[in-house]
Design brief:
The complex is a heterodimer of chains A (about 120) and B (about 425). Chain A has about 120 residues and is of the alpha/beta class. Chain A has three helices and seven strands; from the N terminus they run βααβαβββββ. Chain A has one domain: Beta Barrel (Barwin-like endoglucanases), CATH 2.40.40. In chain A, strands 1, 2, 3, 4, 5, 6 and 7 form a seven-stranded mixed sheet that branches. Chain B has about 425 residues and is an alpha/beta fold. Chain B folds into three domains: about 40 residues, no CATH class; about 200 residues, Rossmann fold (3-Layer(aba) Sandwich), CATH 3.40.50; about 170 residues, Dimethylsulfoxide Reductase, domain 2 (3-Layer(aba) Sandwich). The longest helix of chain B is centred in the N-terminal third of the chain and has 14 residues. The radius of gyration of chain B is 23 Å and the shape is globular. Chain B starts with a strand and ends with a helix. Classes of the chains: A alpha/beta (about 120), B alpha/beta (about 425). Chains A and B meet through strand 1 and helix 1 of A and helix 1, helix 4, helix 6, helix 11 and helix 14 of B.
Amino acid sequence: MVSLVKMVLVSGRSLEQGLGKETGKFSKRYVNATAVCQMDPEDMSRLNIVEGDNVRISSQHGSIIVQAVKSRYAPHPGIIFMAYGPCVNSLTSPNTHGTGMPSFKGLEVEVEPVKASGQSKEG
Amino acid sequence: MEVFKNVLCPFCGCCCDDLEVEVESNKIINVRNACALGRGKFLSVSENRLLKPRVKVNGESVETGLEKAIEKTVEMVKSSNYPVFYGFGCTSCEAIKLCLEMADLSGGLADNISVVCHGPTILGLQDMGIPSATLGQVRHRADLILYWGCNPLEAHPRHMMRYGPLSTGRFVTGRKDRRMVVVDVRKTPTAAMADMFIQVRPNTDFEILTALRALINDLDLEVEEVGGVAVAKLEELADIMVNARFGALFFGLGLTMSYGKEHNIEAAIALTRDLNKKTKFVMIPMRGHFNVTGANEVFTWQTGYPFCVDFSMGYPRYNPGETSAVDVLARGECDLLFVVGADPCSHLPYSIVEKLKNVKLIVLDPSITPTVKMADVAIPVAYVGIETAGTAYRMDGVPIQLKKIIEPPPGILSDVEILTHILRRLR
């Protein structure tokens, strides 16, 4: 068991995020789809967390606390997935490397379990 | 009850144009042939609407009349030193054209949401060209479909059925005659349907594409694996590609948003070019919003450039990284952001959204979004493709007409009408 692991964050589309978007960006459906992270069960075991526990994800650009759920698309050890939305964008890099495109995928992050409940953005 | 046939779906870049929409008393009651996303859009058109223009007074957002909102907008654009006009993925080509005229008149910058999706694709194809095709050609002829860094079952749910492995073509008739390969970092539902799934490590697409080029050109690789994939598996994929009669590579943001960005696209184009020495191979980007391709088209025919167009020198100038909305906002160079058909507060990095606190914000949107909540002026508009007609471009660059199915709520105009009013006063 470890208290913090380095992982690679990938953000992307999900069906629930797409459906939630049309229901409304402030709808429970959209928030539920975009404010959770999908983790490989092996990584959850390493962090000694179970489905529904909160994790803090930190990048160079910010830190968020979100619920962790078991990924249906595992195995993908070392990869943490979040659907596009304001939540994951607290972590994404604004650096466009001269292309105009920020880095939304393949971002290095640190993940650690937290005891507090609920989802919040820390900066 | 009235049934509208051959309706174009204003959700994703597939622009499916075979929808049937049932309308009763100006209310959409059923949608046939659409995927869950398209159906969701039509059926939730009355939910979460922005029904009255809103302006900020002493930091508080208050309702106002349309005339006052337009007046305020004109005043803000006129007094801006460097306005940025941004968005356009969810509006018509006709509206985009008007926004470009506004950007030109005001000496500002115009950028569209491709800058945060397939912008690197555009940079890659400007360097290399792109061997492409229409979706119809793929449907009728492709016996190999390769999805790389995309998950159509969740993002473009009808793509596989209309144009991909499950489609019925004239010369290739169905799934049994087509091979399907998926390359991705996770085993998505799309990958689960593939004949071959190649799971790659994030940020290694460039290496894998380059390794495939070497194999296709009969070179040996002196390593056991590339990007987490055994070379033997890559050899198998190279054989499948070379032996296809007509291969189609559909690629998504897995290539454009990860490390390498436009260089990944250049490598994919180089691979497709090499494959064309041995067989027929094409590539098509999986465009997200229904008219983001149209935004690139209109930008190009109006200014010569597909995105990131700066008018501050009195003529169009293009230099992504310098003249891109994200970079301009990051450097704090603009004093006004004018958004049409997009929600940047949800989709840009938070560090960029924070910069908007120092920027005046105008938005035209049918629904209440985080951008609308932050806006100094928010003007409601009709849903393009549902409450107003127009032109959209499908992901393969084919223009299709959007239809008007129902009337917008009382007092709500189309974005074309609102932009025309604004432009008239700016001229």
